[in-house]
Amino acid sequence: MCGLVVGLLAATGGGAVFAQGACTRTYRGDLVLEGAERLVITEGVLCVDGNIILRDNARLEISNATLRLTGFTDSLFGYRGSFDVHDAASLELRNVRVEAPGHHEVTVGVNAYGGSRVKLLSVTRPDDLLLWCSGYDSSTMAIEATHMRAFVLYGDGVAVSIRNSTVDWLLRNGSCGDL
């Protein structure tokens, strides 16, 4: 069974101020958190030259910051990067601007698997960065004041709440009930 609450309204910027300029923290290659690892970043510019992967009970919380992604895979669909949240891991982005300087038509996927939790609250992006989410197998996702390019639900038990946000495409596969 899949729970989904949708309130598709224009997202508001909330007056957040995002950091500009040089990276205040940099990760070369994938940023991977596992087990009981927890990383909390408040303010500044976080630069990741790779994907973000969370496993087991790991937690990543970023607030009032800019997340600059630079390590992308060149694929058939253009440049691509991802946040992969597995098992009981959690990801929270609050008042975060996601950007990918130097690339055009970048796709960034936020993927929640098997009991993981994702919160995207007031996440902004440039127009040429396509932000999308996928929920799989008993994951929980809360989206608020964020413009998503697409939202895809796969499998059973995906719980999703979308409030004060816009979603260009909403797709589902599996027994997610009525949307």
What features would you describe in this structure?
36% of the residues are buried. The termini are close together. The chain has strands at 3-8, 25-28, 31-33, 38-42, 45-49, 52-54, 59-69, 73-75, 78-85, 90-99, 106-112, 117-124, 129-136, 140-144, 147-154, 159-173. It has one domain (3-173). By secondary structure, the protein is mainly beta.
Helix and strand topology:
Elements: E1 3-8, E2 25-28, E3 31-33, E4 38-42, E5 45-49, E6 52-54, E7 59-69, E8 73-75, E9 78-85, E10 90-99, E11 106-112, E12 117-124, E13 129-136, E14 140-144, E15 147-154, E16 159-173
Parallel strand pairs: 1-16, 2-5, 3-6, 4-7, 5-7, 6-9, 7-10, 9-11, 10-12, 11-13, 12-14, 13-15, 14-16, 15-16
Antiparallel strand pairs: 8-9
Distance, first to last CA = 11 Å
Class computed from helices, strands and strand pairing = mainly beta
Shape: globular
How many helices? The count is 0
Radius of gyration: 15 Å
Which series of helices and strands comes N to C?
EEEEEEEEEEEEEEEE
Total domain units: 1
Which bin fits the share of residues in helices?
Answer: under 10%
Content of β-strand:
over 45%
How would you characterize the largest beta sheet?
16 strands, mixed
Number of strands: 16
Mean of residue pLDDT values: 80
- Regions with pLDDT < 50 over 5+ consecutive residues? 1-17
Pick out its properties.
179 residues, disordered N terminus, mainly beta
At a glance:
By secondary structure, the protein is mainly beta. It is built from no helices and 16 strands.
